[in-house]
């Protein structure tokens, strides 16, 4: 469900630090004479309670920050698979900086300002640059690419993204011959991103979230710098204003809200690999034959129409169905070892 209006527990932007949220909750708990055994952050279960007793409601209607965006059709779009409904793409998210449970990022990222925004591209390049996101939007040819989106948690979607190839952006900076890898970094701003200052929201991950690709993966035409979905610019919970989509890899490679792109000679560290090196590799290519230690990757729950809990299962495809375009990148590489 896409919640159009702010829930009553959602604070004004200038108050929305984790401390402020926590203090407001504590105040309410005190007023009610309730025991303090209430979690500091609203969950779906207790939101109703606070709805009833919340003293001052913010009556300003919530303004959807997304704006209309068109893209030209792409030959790379998925054929013959229905789309995941927009409301599911907007609410069934992983963006741990805004909460570790599904539905939480859509709420906690509301009001997250992504304008102005700059992206720095530097390292092994002839021309390092800092680009204004507005200029990126004006200068890049936006395409619509319908891609399969497969999370390592064994669910999948089919999403009409809008974006441009990473290769077209990297050409601007002219990578040097030493540029063997590309590293990406999410914005680090604990004052605006609750999970970066609160363990209970962000799961205690070492932020900023970082990801990486080999230069060949980065230059593959499928690799998409994504700025929108479903005919609009990205919502904050989907990684506004700019995120990566690498459709043949597990979703965690698709780093959100990027501010830095650094080209380098050595393989860069990546967030999930640092957290669990035997569970999450650097490559993270979708592969039905290589199971995650805790679950099988042979099939996936496709998030479509109807309840998430009754999603149908479908077989997982090698390289998520993009083998024709990318299998040659991994010739001679042992994909069981290099998961
Ligand atoms: N910065 C950041 N990027 C992130 C994540 C995250 O927690 N933080 N989660 C990843 C995971 S696990 C997935 S599956 C996708 C989910 O993207 P979506 O919510 O737009 O579907 O984002 C990826 N990018
Ligand atoms: Mo994921």
UniProtKB/TrEMBL annotation:
One of its GO terms (molecular function) is metal ion binding. Binds 1 Mo-molybdopterin (Mo-MPT) cofactor per subunit. GO terms for biological process: protein repair. Keywords: Metal-binding, Molybdenum, Oxidoreductase, Signal. Its EC number is 1.8.5.-. It comes from the Bacteria. Its cofactor is Mo-molybdopterin. Gene3D superfamilies: Oxidoreductase, molybdopterin-binding domain. Signal peptide: none annotated. Pfam families: Oxidored_molyb (PF00174). Residues 113-272 form the Oxidoreductase molybdopterin-binding domain. SUPFAM superfamilies: Oxidoreductase molybdopterin-binding domain. Mo-molybdopterin binds at residues 93, 96-97, 151, 186, 238, 243, 254-256. Coiled coil: none annotated. Heterodimer of a catalytic subunit (MsrP) and a heme-binding subunit (MsrQ). Part of the MsrPQ system that repairs oxidized periplasmic proteins containing methionine sulfoxide residues (Met-O), using respiratory chain electrons. Thus protects these proteins from oxidative-stress damage caused by reactive species of oxygen and chlorine generated by the host defense mechanisms. MsrPQ is essential for the maintenance of envelope integrity under bleach stress, rescuing a wide series of structurally unrelated periplasmic proteins from methionine oxidation. Belongs to the MsrP family. This is Protein-methionine-sulfoxide reductase catalytic subunit MsrP. It comes from Vibrio rumoiensis 1S-45.
